[in-house]
Amino acid sequence: NSKSGYTIFISKSPLTLSGKDYYLYSLTYLNGYQGLNEKYLNILLLSTLMAACAMLVPAYAFVSRMVLPLQKINEVAMEYGKGNFNIRADESHKGEIGELGQSFNFLADRLSKSIKDLTAERNQLQDIFDVISDGIVVVDNRCVPVTTNKAIHKLFERAEKNNMFTERLQLIPFDDVWTDFEDCIKSGETKTRQIDNRDYAYQCTIIPKYDSADSTKVIGATGFFRDIFEEQKNERFRQDYVANISHELRTPLQTLRGLIEPLSDGMVKKEEDRQRYYQIILNETMRLSRLIDDMLELSKLQSRTLAFKTF
What we know:
This protein is 56% helix and 18% strand. It has 311 residues and is of the alpha+beta class.
């Protein structure tokens, strides 16, 4: 009874007496035990609090020795994932944590060295790539340019610039070439094309690019582009020159024949006329020799065995 300030504990127990069942009721006042319960609860709470405080010391030691170093190593690993290999893990810890830090640092050193070597090799290949006079374009399987060299950006300066709103046409201003790229990726076959115009001429070769893990899977294509306008112009010049030389050779030969036949038939009687014929024959022979020398030099220039001389 909380209002009266006392507590009664009632217990009921079964009892058999002379063959009959009875119940025994027991009433106990707990006023004297109330303070004891409160003291017991206070002692239990205090001991729990002291035990918790006592556990904080080993818990803090565990966190300081295991959790925090692992968290630091995790942060180092995250930096490695971002490409920062300059950061290093703490190797001063004893046991497995220190060995783990040493392993991470060894991994960072090897990765850093490998990346530096790959970067140097890539830069060297890029230098070679840029020195090549032919234009080179590498596209992925969606026909999107992923790699180009410097030459390709100047190669098509003489070509017409049509529909330049398309980014890839700003690189190669010919729709047919991009169609060849798409066909090459779809079929896996090499495509060649020659583009001729009054002001320009280009030779285009597109080869498929296969996956290194699956030699049957096309993952892109590589296009090689060469400006052949000067070559074609030189070839036309050579053809015209050969035609002119042929005509020039025919003229002295006909002249020689027209002079030698009368001399051979004895139709030229006067010595003065014969000497004049001989002089003409000599001049035409020298002219013929010069024409032949010019043709030989042209042949050497074609085979690139003769260098130009600067006067």
